[in-house]
Protein: Bug family tripartite tricarboxylate transporter substrate binding protein
Amino acid sequence: MTHSTLSALWSRGRITAVSALCAASLMATTPALADYPERDISMIIPFGVGGGSDTLARTIANVIGELKLLPVQILPENRPGGSGAVGYSSVGKEKGNPYVIATVSVSFFTTPLQGGSPVSYRDFTPLGAIAQSPYVLVVPASSEYKTLDDLKKAKRLTTGTVGVVSDAALLAKMTSNGLGVKIDAVPFDGEGEVMAAILGGHVNVAYFNPSEALPQIKAGTLRPLAVSSAKRADAFPDVPTFSELGHNIVHTQIRGLVMPKDVKPEVVACWEGVLKKVAESPQWRTQYIDRFHDVPNFMNSAEFATAIADTSGRYERLMKELGVIK
Structure:
């Protein structure tokens, strides 16, 4: 890259440190992509306004904007329908297009496995992950079960899940296999109903994200037994992981971004840099990590790709065991 080219880029007044580095790397290898991004980028949200995926996507876009990491805008667009199929298929079909992105969710994995989507994780390019959302296994404070080992004494347990296939259902199956005790998953219409069921003693155990469980734990109405992350969660520093207690149970919701398949490697490298900056920023910690008590964890594209494949495999095994798919 020549000095005059760099001067021209900087004179636009829109390219910050990160995007200048992106532009520099692109110009050194792929002249056709020298000015990426040249226009605004669509962030497709496969669900409605106000849900967890919507909040995640808009927070990422907001932090990128506040930090001025790109010379263009990220434009969130809700495309709900088909348990995520409408939104994800619209992104997956844009093969090679570096101007459309999406966040991953449970439906990113489960809907394709159930045959409800024309695209699967193989139709996407993982850009990077920036956090993980663990689950905490809880019982009512009045429960006879004080520790994870106490659950082994039960002949049979019940838990609540949102739908038949969910992270809670997956974790219930993993816990059942690990402890050698049958855990029946009872489907409910929403997390609020699951919370009411556990507080009312209608189910024995439940799995919640930290932000859902923390108020009740602080109020003394729920007792946490274990968390599903590889390391202890900051929200529950005194609560052991399943692994610490001798059970190979690790499962979290991975928070990250994907693009359609076959985008240029230089674009992926650019976004890795952007997402690393987001993950390390105080804005991200304040607006998302501290708010939802997630675990900060940056993954580059290759690491995220491995995590996505592993997660899909876990869902596939669960769904086969439950008889949801063959």
